[in-house]
TrEMBL record:
Job description of the protein: Involved in the maturation of [NiFe] hydrogenases. Required for nickel insertion into the metal center of the hydrogenase.
Residues the record lists as binding Zn(2+): 73, 76, 89, 92
Name under which the protein is recorded: Hydrogenase maturation factor HypA
Gene3D superfamilies in the cross-refs: 3.30.2320.80
Organism whose genome encodes this protein: Sinanaerobacter chloroacetimidivorans
GO biological process, any: protein maturation
Stretches that traverse the bilayer: none
Length: 115
């Protein structure tokens, strides 16, 4: 359910951006969402369709780029996507540590339309 406030926030930011650029409407908003960010893309789209009604965002498409979490190997420093039930580096077999990769959540770009 915490997608609701974040979606309101996204719309607010997009509207501010569009207003500053004198846009007539917002065509699309691209979000980067890490699998470990705690946010679910589908829920954001669902709330977006409801909250954006009557705003410059109405009818805009939400594009979501998913980021897979990556671990950093404590042995060789390589970044890798972990396999199910394993934390081992595919290169050297050492254990990987969690990184910030996969926890992202931000607006990558906003596409606007001018009359
Ligand atoms: Zn390694």
């Amino acid at each position: 359910m915490h997608e609701f406030p974040i979606t309101q926030q996204i719309i607010k930011i997009a509207e501010k951006h569009a207003t500053e650029l004198c846009a007539s409407r917002i065509k699309s908003i691209k979000l980067v969402v890490g699998d470990y960010s705690g946010f679910i893309g589908d829920s954001i789209q669902m709330y977006f369709d409801v909250i954006s009604e009557g705003t410059l965002c109405e009818g805009a498409v939400i594009e979501i780029e998913h980021r897979k979490p990556k671990l950093r190997c404590t042995g060789c420093g390589e970044l890798f996507e972990r396999e199910l039930l394993s934390f081992s580096c595919p290169t050297c077999g050492e254990t990987g540590e969690p990184t910030e990769i996969g926890k992202e959540f931000y607006i990558d770009s906003i596409e606007i339309e001018k009359e």
